[in-house]
Amino acid sequence: xxxxxxxxxxxxxxxxxxxxxxxxxxxxxxxxxxxxxxxxxxxxxxxxxxxxxxxxxxxxxxxxxxxxxxxxxxxxxxxxxxxxxxxxxxxxxxxxxxxxxxxxxxxxxxxxxxxxxxxxxxxxxxxxxxxxxxxxxxxxxxxxxxxxxxxxxxxxxxxxxxxxxxxxxxxxxxxxxxxxxxxxxxxxxxxxxxxxxxxxxxxxxxxxxxxxxxxxxxxxxxxxxxxxxxxxxxxxxxxxxxxxxxxxxxxxxxxxxxxxxxxxxxxxxxxxxxxxxxxxxxxxxxxxxxxxxxxxxxxxxxxxxxxxxxxxxxxxxxxxxxxxxxxxxxxxxxxxxxxxxxxxxxxxxxxxxxx
Amino acid sequence: xxxxxxxxxxxxxxxxxxxxxxxxxxxxxxxxxxxxxxxxxxxxxxxxxxxxxxxxxxxxxxxxxxxxxxxxxxxxxxxxxxxxxxxxxxxxxxxxxxxxxxxxxxxxxxxxxxxxxxxxxxxxxxxxxxxxxxxxxxxxxxxxxxxxxxxxxxxxxxxxxxxxxxxxxxxxxxxxxxxxxxxxxxxxxxxxxxxxxxxxxxxxxxxxxxxxxxxxxxxxxxxxxxxxxxxxxxxxxxxxxxxxxxxxxxxxxxxxxxxx
Lengths: 355, 260
Ligand SMILES: Nc1ncnc2c1ncn2[C@@H]1O[C@H](COP(=O)(O)OP(=O)(O)OP(=O)(O)O)[C@@H](O)[C@H]1O
Ligand SMILES: [Mg+2]
Fold this sequence. Notes:
heterodimer; A: ABC transporter involved in vitamin B12 uptake, BtuC; globular; B: alpha/beta; Rossmann fold; 2 domains; 4-stranded antiparallel β-sheet; 9 helices; 31% helix; binds adenosine-5'-triphosphate; binds magnesium ion
């Protein structure tokens, strides 16, 4: 048998390619981080700051504020949100067994948004002790609950005996989105002026409001979700063959699905809570990675975190320089770049949407 | 060691598709399940693999599967479903490796390639699974199943292949090849339970045959006992003749054309 095997043409090792890609993406991410720290409305430049830090010269007050209180938290939030969006997209696609599933497209983002809006508008009415208990975690946590409820509902509606109907999933997503939008609309009427400002700003999808407080609010939830998601690689690979076969090869399917749904909800919820609706990262990033190094979730998920963070940070740079000194909402940038890619995916793989 | 099912009942909603079926399949045997479309073969197999909720008991190598974790079951039996749909563009060899995920044979990295060679598809290892023809895809799935329980006997315990129509879309040469794979797995001490439609192929390769009809067990026994004109005509509801040409002992089933 061995002799027979040696005569075979070499099989491309996509696992090795994915690992190489891992380092490439990590390098790219570092470059994106530098670009992000370098860019901004004030004339503070990274190289100048670095030189002075090396020489041991004190930074000016402006430099400190710009760097530590504006650009660094913005970068940290971009890292977290980009990774969260891309990974929750990849997990959702694995869970629904379809490359078109994306939290933003199928209403999970809307559900999370509704949770966040509820927290912003009604949070003030909560008893003081509860507010003190939840602190600034209230909005991300409410968004997580909203995302979780909508993911669960979506899965119930569109999956029967381990098979997901794409048509049902997308239509249910539209219904969920409409419902969340309507309830949010009602809430806007009862909101006071300050809350309204919060809502408008938040709804545009932006990293501009970044602060260490927000990073600390969303960070733990996102990191937890990423950790859980990275453990799902094997299970999601098995699920690609259907729920029954996944169980046959030894995967605890029910538990895996619950973890996946929680991870998607936590990552999407926390990301939406701090940055509003930023679309297309979750669908474009996993798709590009599958083209480059195959669909194996064990490498896809970590690579999605890297590429998602990189792309979101770069989109944020574009948002800041495109119409400087004004700033575009980042959701507009990701939509302009992402929507055509999404259409291209549809065009190339029209069969995917067939039920 | 054996695979024993007692009084299995499976219902879809209020309709019972399997109504109290029992089976004793022995390691070392190829046990075939035959019966008309909709008679509950796949459903019964679904109970044996624990993938459908059922009433009754299934004892795999002496242990009730209700007490086993998915990975414990996966270590002792592999399952070929009647149809699979792969969600993402994995290559052929990647699909076969999915069978190793339970971690039993995980370290043996040449097993997937050898399993592919076993079904005659090693040269397709790098192709996209989604591009394969129906029969090729079915053989790749068989390779995945073989890779999962590569050794027919491990630590003194037989392993099991549960196959739902393993040859249904194969050409005649590959039908024979796949049945011989199943047989040699059984001869080496493993157990095979296979749902079959081709009665003559079944007669050649099965040691025991279970005939299901409308969710009930109509007959169980050696091919020469079960493949009789009477039993088959009752099971399938049409007139079937059985003769025994050489080699002796292997019945041959022929439909009687009603209109000639
Ligand atoms: N998911 C389901 N929901 C409802 N009824 C089902 C389901 N699956 C199977 N059935 C019904 O249960 C009965 C047995 O089905 P099963 O798939 O076990 O038949 P089978 O013997 O494997 O048939 P075939 O030879 O066509 O594969 C059939 O009447 C079928 O319609
Ligand atoms: Mg069947």
